[in-house]
Amino acid sequence: MKYFDIEGKEYKLVIGNGEDDIYRRSFNALTEKTFGFNFEKWYQDGYWKNQYIPYSLMDGDKVVSNVSVNIMNFEVYGKTKRYIQLGTVMTDIDYRNKGLARVIMEKIIKEWKDKCDLIYLFANDTVFDFYPKFGFDRLSQYQCEKLVNIENGHGYAKKLNMSDKGDMSLVFEKANSSASFAKVSMLGNAELIMFYCTLFMNENVYYIQDYDAVVIADFAEGTIGLLDFFCKEEVSLDKILNYMVNENIKKVKLYFTPKETSSYTLTQLGEEDVLFVLGRDKMLFADKQFMFPVLSHT
């Protein structure tokens, strides 16, 4: 246990794992207050594992500031990498502008910068000036999209029930053992995929029996947003899309970068969720038109 004196007040640093009920309740309360969701269901479902590590400053038994470390393995342009993504960056409104987040960031960077190939995070325009102070550089990301020009009605995609234990197990198994279909592909972090599939995307999960594939997709205003798909065997993206489109779909937008992009238009993303990077793999991405899979965001 480590303590920090900040502006004459003592704060306790807790490196959390969710198992302490008092800590978890306070952590969830600040997450709910800051972002409008919490991690309780994810914990109760058994998906909060040791890849997700909150670093929290506490005032007594109350979490007042936090930055979470997410240990992530990726296949990046054909090579396996160990990255650290920072997420759940939050400070209680009554404790802001005191330097609490800075203390946590400095602690994490010192502890992890030599243990990984890259530290990265996503931020909105309210904090663009904050992260460069720690050596982070901003990189652009690009999204693939194209008009639909493939056959409709090729097959059937079954919508899964993410309250059903059998369907949950199916998604977990596929996400944990999928082949890599993206230039930057998250490996072996099915727990994070389940966070999305049981909370924000619980109505967007499908199964294609012909390919034994799980697909996460959103439909809106004539566009299919393909978040990701998981399949043990190599299968072309167009074959997956053939099962998902209908006569109302005019466009496809991908929320990852496929290995083959020649048939897609790449559009630079705006400033809603900007990528900041720090570490030896920074130059690997500097001249690439890519995006981290949206379902890998924490």
UniProtKB/TrEMBL annotation:
Entry-linked Gene3D superfamilies: 3.40.630.30
InterPro entries: Acyl_CoA_acyltransferase (IPR016181), GNAT_dom (IPR000182)
Pfam assignment, any one: Acetyltransf_9
GO molecular-function terms, A-Z: acyltransferase activity, transferring groups other than amino-acyl groups
Signal peptide start-end: none
Entry superkingdom: Bacteria
PROSITE patterns (alphabetical): GNAT
Boundaries of every N-acetyltransferase domain copy: 9-163
Protein name in UniProt: N-acetyltransferase domain-containing protein
